[in-house]
């Protein structure tokens, strides 16, 4: 018999807020974290805006020891450790030095690319014949599993400690991987999440692809426009989200606060066939992923109350809504409430799924639906499929029982997780 899995802790470093309490307020208020960056203007980027968590030196000193900070130059590791430690503490777990690791706790914390600024620094030093000046942490900061390795050492986890990477699907995939490990009895607790670096050396490739908005440099908060007719491309973002998943019996035994239950989900790929490509989703695969997620959770199609979509503010938004309508067999007023966090944060790439999972769970636990911002002009093709009332533009104080969170990534990969309100 599979074990039930619940969420007992969360942490977040998002462009619009750092820390769970402030993030809760930010999404309720529809607060944007997208800003103009003079550095991007100097480098002649077309899109000179982005989403980046505001982290002070003082805050870093609260999360890292002086030794850990020595030579550390990876924004993704900064964000991931902040979110991960916060989630651990939020779950009521101690961070302490002990002789043996915690064999029942593990980590699956993903990323897309890590340590870009450290790579740049290393390349210059090596080319100048100054290899010895790289320092002892350059490998740890630039290996993909650097984030899980840092967290694993800080928290002393002795179960599986690893990093996954599946483009924009990374965070949601990490959560489902952690869910599987607990539900199968291989762990009691898994810290799951994902992080993303930021800056010109991460965002430059997307600017070169001309898929970022170039006309909002003077009005950055208006730039990310999911489901809008005037959407002009996604705004790049960064940060990290973390969730502490736990076996229900373990959580109840130690009297932990329970935010929500993870019912399960599905991960698949469109194989870059049938209309799918490196950058576009195979519609059949997306619909199969949604339907299979419901089947895995023993849910009927009319039991989904809310959807936190991938919805990036590109032409793919219309297609995504069509796929939800076809997969659920629900349209018009019968369609669930749907929202996208990316209007407030931009597209946080490999961190997007985990940050948006935190936002989804907060809606369940606190009985509200956060607003969609910057979509006053809803795309007419979307309005033909679902009513505008299904796309709240103001915060709704309402109780929902189930929320489906979806992530669709480059490489034609998909993940859907379903959260349920926990009732003791």
From TrEMBL:
Catalytically driven reaction(s): a fatty acyl-[ACP] + malonyl-[ACP] + H(+) = a 3-oxoacyl-[ACP] + holo-[ACP] + CO2; (3Z)-decenoyl-[ACP] + malonyl-[ACP] + H(+) = 3-oxo-(5Z)-dodecenoyl-[ACP] + holo-[ACP] + CO2
Principal location listed in the UniProt entry: cytoplasm
GO molecular function: 3-oxoacyl-[acyl-carrier-protein] synthase activity
Organism (species): Christiangramia fulva
Cytoplasm recorded as keyword: yes
Broad EC category: transferase
Domain Ketosynthase family 3 (KS3): 2-421
Gene Ontology CC terms: cytosol
A biological process from GO: fatty acid biosynthetic process
Keyword Transmembrane carried by entry: no
Family recorded in the similarity comment: Belongs to the thiolase-like superfamily. Beta-ketoacyl-ACP synthases family.
Protein name from the UniProt record: 3-oxoacyl-[acyl-carrier-protein] synthase 1
Subunit structure: Homodimer.
Localisation: Cytoplasm
Keywords assigned by UniProt, alphabetized: Acyltransferase, Cytoplasm, Transferase
EC number: 2.3.1.41
